[in-house]
Amino acid sequence: MKALVFKRKPGKYVAAGIAGRLSAGKGAAVGPLSLRDVDEPELPTDEWVRLRPRLAGICGSDLATIDGHSSRYFEPIVSFPFTPGHEVVGDLDDGTRAVLIPVLSCVTRGIDPVCPACAAGRTNRCGRIAYGHLEPGLQTGFCADTGGGWSGELVAHPSQLLAVPDTLTDEQAVMVEPTACAVHAARAVLGGGTGDAPSTIALLGSGTLGLLTLAALRAEGSDAHVVATGKYPHQKALATSLGATQVASPGELGRVVRRLTGAWLFDDASPHRGQLSDGVDVVVDCVGSEASLTQALEVVAPGGRIVVVGMPGHTSLDLTGLWHRETSIAGCYAYTRDDFEAALALVAAADLGRLVSATYPLARYEQAIEHAANAGARGAVKVAFDLRKKDRR
Amino acid sequence: MPRPGFVLDVDKSTPPVLFHHGEGFRLEKLPADRSRVIYPGEPLEPLDDVNAAIQEALLNPVGDSQPLPSLLTPGMKLTIAFDDVSLPLPPMKRPDIRQRVIEAVLDMAAAAGVDDVHLIAALALHRRMTEDELRHAVGDRVYDAFAPHGALYNHDAEDPDNLAFLGTTKHGEEVEINKRAAESDLLVYVNINIVSMDGGHKSTATGLASYRSIKHHHNVHTMQHSKSFMDRHSSELHHSNWRMGKVIKDAGVKVFQIETTINNDTFGQEGAMSVLAKREWEWSAKDRVAFVGMQQGLKRLSSSTRRKIFQSHRAPYGVTSVTAGEIEAVHEITLQHCFDQHLVEVEGQTDILTMGLPYICPYNVNSIMNPILVMCLGLGYFFNMYRGKPLVREGGVLIMTHPTPWEFHPVHHPSYIDFFEQVLSETTDPKVIEATYEQQFAEDEWYRHLYRTSYAYHGVHPFYMWYWGSHALQHLGRVIIVGGDVRAVKRLGFKSASTLQDAFEMAEDVVGPRPTITHLKNPPIVMADVK
Predict the structure, then answer these.
(1) Residue B445 is nearest to which of A246, A262, A273, comparing CB atoms?
(2) What does DSSP say about strands B343-346 and B527-530: parallel, antiparallel, or unpaired?
(3) Among A120, A248, B80, B385, which residue carries the largest CB count within 10 Å?
(4) Where are the extended beta strands (E) located within A45-144?
(5) Range of the domain at B107
(6) Does A252 contact chain B (CB < 8 Å)?
(7) How many interchain CB pairs under 8 A, A with B?
(8) pLDDT tens string for chain A (393 positions)?
(9) Do the beta carbons of residue B505 and residue B244 sit within 8 Å?
């Protein structure tokens, strides 16, 4: 079968990093990713089943890997060669469709007893992702044994599958995985009912994750004043339709937050920018870049929280304000099965399949990656591989 | 004998007409046989002896008023309020007429043994004047005698300890003005009536008032019912101020009003700018060379350098009248002087009104003409330069030339930036803007702080700019800006055109083929008396 395969080739990885810095998405052409004929992955145990992807999305973490700028943090928790693709809706042997829950937790690895995190249902925090009968891999799509969504076939443990109702289109179904991330983020933002719900939220980034998090915040019952940042007109329009109270360009956010919160500035000489005396209760960073994290620190209220949903990497930040204003930063990774179930309902209710802007066959993967890496500028949101026709696989 | 303003019917021999374009100019050919140009009158003869005229006015006031010396007594509390940096435009060459009048008043006060004197810049919700600007307005001698002792300062419309509530009009309008002015034995107001909108009861009822008071007439309803606000008898803005004036008077505030008018000598008779005041067909070869040289020179400069050059221009206006005494009697005489200079009789309305917007308006002296001010100057001030009915018919098109840069003065206009980014990106409807956003901006503590301690316009001020244009917005079928920043023009809710000819074609979509065109050639100031 055809599969996109990512091999451990340090030289090519460096080349991808250079190409990716020059032009987003260009790492696909020169890096360690290539389209190959490979054998179908073996079933690790009898429990496992085969899943033939119908649509497989391209995620920001995939792009970071392909463009050679993901962190070395991942080295011990991925295994090569792997086939990327963890946003997957596919066909099972019984003819039904399922969405993949890609986290490779204790149960999938045959580890018994399971780790404390898995025992608590927090499989996203599993402490055994490099152990058991599978090669290391935090998720399907980063593990040498399971295959990935960017191929004709992968293998999945039954605990990784969520049945797709007939009423859901493939486009909606492929959005379930990123939507589960968003639901998880929204629940983290809203404190799971344990704290005061924020009344003001700044949501940075109106890419896929940002837009879905907006939808999830509203679905989870937030009535906060949410200011979203968006660079492009289609992002702004979608952010508004998915629940943003206000949408601003990134450069305008400081002034919007100042006005929203009645903050003062500590620099009279430049009264339209500068350090705010106050800020929003929570910043949800759906970008994860140095610039977005810096901005998050600028607009969060003293004592406020920053929830990092977009995958960050190496960054350099001035944390003086974090210390002085007693701000906290928390990461927010992936999801639990509960989040997935909520996401399944949300994609239907909010018709999130409309965020799938373009699909490509595997053979055109370089263009697909480039499109996804420049989605905002090209008027797109989610780009996916379409494997529904045999000749596309 | 200066020639009055007049209406030129454009024919094939008419040379291209000068349009102001911010810190630059355009020469535009208007279609023959269906275009006309309204030219301002030449500068009226100024007073031969301004100081003598001031003495005459103070000693022989009009209306129910005693001569100033008889109102001055030892031990009394005297306050002199004066118009702020928004007048005149551009600023006048020294000595400013305010200085001359204030010096005369102070001489009389000193002679009468009055030693409790305060001078207050009546800036309402405008930005505070800087020391240089105050020195320019009142002169160094007055500044040095009063400012160091805290007796010369800017009005603060947000200082609760220094505002006095005087009552409510029969329309429910609250009247709250500067406490020192209200509690003085005599308030002398020194004005410059550059256009007919200025002066009268508006001087005190607006210039020395608080937001609580000003909001009763600076609102969409009032502005849409001021047709126009340059014609006080048809202006709801003025009716409201006149009602407030009565409350002020009934509260016992004694006002001695001194109003002055200036002529149209904006650009001088000599120097590079003098060509701007001439009629194009009368340009000499020297004028043409000077104009081309100026155009070429300006093109080579950065926008900030151009701005600096234009903002440093000081106009050699001549003073045409000084009138003192009771407010309403004074103002009627002042208005006549304004109309003598500005009014031009115009027959009928037009399909398309064109105007070239200059580099300055009342709110960007020593500052930047941001897009909101472009809107206000065009749709507020220039559109309303009429008496009778608007120059352009209802549903007609307004075409303005101005670069309309997406640029703001960060110190002077902080709330404008937010208004432009956060309000106009949502809606340009004045009523929606007023209902949804005004209070938030007006009560924003940060804007309040900047207004009171820095040099920022009040948080609500950009709203007033938008309301100023609300009558025009209601009246017009389309607004087109030629040569403007496309993004900024779009944010204003207007259409962009690269050339005037393109704009005419776009306008025809609204008003039909072969429309009539009228160009209001302003500045120098001209006001149409539309029959």
Answers:
(1) A262
(2) parallel
(3) B80
(4) 49-57, 87-92, 97-100
(5) 53-262
(6) yes
(7) 44
(8) 999 999 887 887 787 788 778 888 887 777 889 999 999 999 999 999 999 999 999 999 999 999 888 888 999 999 999 999 999 999 999 999 999 999 999 999 999 999 999 999 999 999 999 999 999 999 999 999 999 999 999 999 999 999 999 999 999 999 999 999 999 999 999 986 556 789 999 999 999 999 999 999 999 999 999 999 999 999 999 999 999 999 999 999 999 999 999 999 987 555 556 789 999 999 999 999 999 999 999 999 999 999 999 999 889 999 999 999 999 999 999 999 999 999 999 999 999 999 999 999 999 999 999 999 999 999 999 999 999 987 655
(9) no
A344 domain residue, yes or no: no
- Residues B462 and B405 both lie in one domain: yes
Structure tokens at B28: 């535009």
> What is the token pair recorded at B459?
């948080």
Provide the whole-model pTM.
0.89
Residues A8 and A150 in one domain: yes
Relative orientation angle of helices A176-189 and A208-219, to the nearest 10 degrees: 60
Residue B258 shares a structural domain with residue B382: no
> Closest Cα of chain B to A270: distance in Å?
7
On the 0-12 / 13-18 / 19+ scale of CB atoms within 10 A, A272 is buried
Q: Is B186 helix (H, G, I), strand (E, B) or coil?
A: strand
Task: With both helix axes pointing from N to C terminus, report the angle between B97-111 and B131-138 in degrees, rounded to the nearest 10.
Answer: 70
Distance CA B99, CA B94 (A): 9
How many CA atoms lie less than 13 Å away from A253 in the CB half-sphere? 27
* Nearest in space to B371 (alpha carbons), one of B20, B22, B18, B19: B22
DSSP 3-state of B383: coil
Cα–Cα distance, B237 to A233 (Å, whole number) = 39
Residue position matching structure tokens 């979509």 = B509
Are the beta carbons of A88 and A96 closer than 8 angstroms?
no
Question: Do residues B196 and B339 lie in contact, with contact meaning Cβ atoms separated by under 8 Å?
Answer: yes
Cβ-based neighbours of B158, under 8 Å, separated by 6 or more: B210, B211, B448, B451, B452, B458
Residue A302, SS3 per DSSP: strand
Chain A residues near residue B410 by CB distance under 8 angstroms: 270-273
Beta-carbon separation of B411 and A259 below 8 A: no
Tally of domains in chain B: 2
Test A259 with B444 for CB contact under 8 angstroms.
yes
Strands (E), B179-254: 186-190
The reply to whether B365 and B468 lie within a common domain is yes
User: A76 preceded by cis ω (within 30°)?
Assistant: no
Six-digit token pair at B407?
A: 């640029």
Chain A CB contacts of B445 below 8 Å = 262, 264
> Which H, E and C letters describe A170-205, residue by residue?
HHHHHCHHHHHHHHHHHHHHCHHHCCCCCCEEEEEC
Q: What is the tally of structural domains in chain A? A: 2
Residue B402 resides in a domain: yes
Please report, for residues A22, A185, A311, A371, the alpha-carbon distance to residue A236 in angstroms, rounded to integers and kept in the order given. 27, 20, 22, 19
In order, the DSSP letters of A58-72 are --HHHHHHHTT-S-G
Digit-coded pLDDT (tens) for B113-124: 999 999 999 999
**Which letter does DSSP use for residue A153 in this model?**
-
User: Residues B245-278, buried b or exposed e (16+ Cβ, 10 A)?
Assistant: bebbbeeebebbbbbbbbbbbbbbeeeebbbbbb
Q: Which domain holds residue A265?
A: 180-331
Report chain A residues whose CB lies below 8 A from the CB of B449: 264
Q: Does A259 sit within 8 Å of B422, measured CB to CB?
A: yes
**Residues B136 and B235 reside in one and the same domain:** yes
Q: Which of B210, B232, B262 is the last residue of a domain?
A: B262
Domain ends where: A299, A331, A363?
A: A331
